[in-house]
Predict the 3D structure of the following.
Amino acid sequence: MRKNTLKLLAAAFIMSTTAVVFHSCSDNDDEEIISTGIASDPNNFKGEVKPGETVTLDPSKVYKLTGSVMVKAGGTLVIPAGTKIEATGGTSAYITIEQDGKIFANGTASSPIVFTSPAATPGSWGGLVICGKAPINKGTTATSEVGNATYGGTNAADNSGIIKYVRIEYAGAIFTADKEFNGLSLFGVGSGTTIDNVSMINGSDDGIEFFGGTVNVSNIVSVANEDDAFDWTEGWKGTATNIYTKRRANGVGNRGIEADNNSNDNNANPRSNPTIKNATFIGGTTGEADAIKLRVGTYATIDNVVLSNWSTGINVEHDASVAYFNGGGKITNVKFESVATQASAKSSAGVTVPILTNTFTINSAATGAGSGTAMPTWAAGWAGIQ
């Protein structure tokens, strides 16, 4: 393409409100990326991706997240492999994908996408939030804790985009019992969404939390977060394969899994009932030291797990959950390492009840996330752990 033609095209694109990637055919075959909209100033990345707009970030730049980014219905945020986003706006800095908005964060093992903070302390920013239209049991719809966006609906196959090879560092914050920022918050996200190879590191609240929905996830790392590593509530019914979690070395942190259905109605539908397969939970004996906490009516199928260094391995509470898991066959192939109490249970009245012998099965050869308590090979490099 002749250089004067390229300049005319570039000018035309700059006049639009949409950020695009433009591939030039100039003499040196270099790729020119023209960023407009909220990506036009990498030092002040915030605002809305509007309906019908596609904002594409430039991986050669570092984007300073100075406030919230809201991807509205019909808007698309594209984050190429190798892009780095540094949150500098405190907990007012977060990214929310609203219903019918899309995010395409396609990193690679050699060039992951990194969300971080120069402060390098837990709770430095608000994290990544996705709101979909899949079913929840809090109501037909509800409002997210972060971003005040609507989530929930009737589309189990709803698609919010792709998140692959992404690292989220130093996110999260606890404001009240009902307002918490996690590393990755998934509100009513549907099974059409791809979430694969994602790590949450050094967060102030939960690493990842599911609020209903049907999304499936794989190759999840949640390490050194100050609350729970892996959390679900409000009727999540997806599948999680290959999970590696570890509490901080100084003992700060809580459970490996905190699993709820609905605290107001333990039998609310759709009931939380995910499948968890191939997981390692490494913990501590201070704070809420349960490797797996199953309560307020949640169901689940859990297989091939390694639980290491916990006060309690499996803790089941409330009548609906106790009856389900004491039926047997739901928790299989568990390896306990340095766990003081393998399992315990309490009724809804808070009375200790027996854990039946068939509630879980033990397998000393269980591999968990792939390598027992060692870092799994699939997490090497991109996940940001040693």
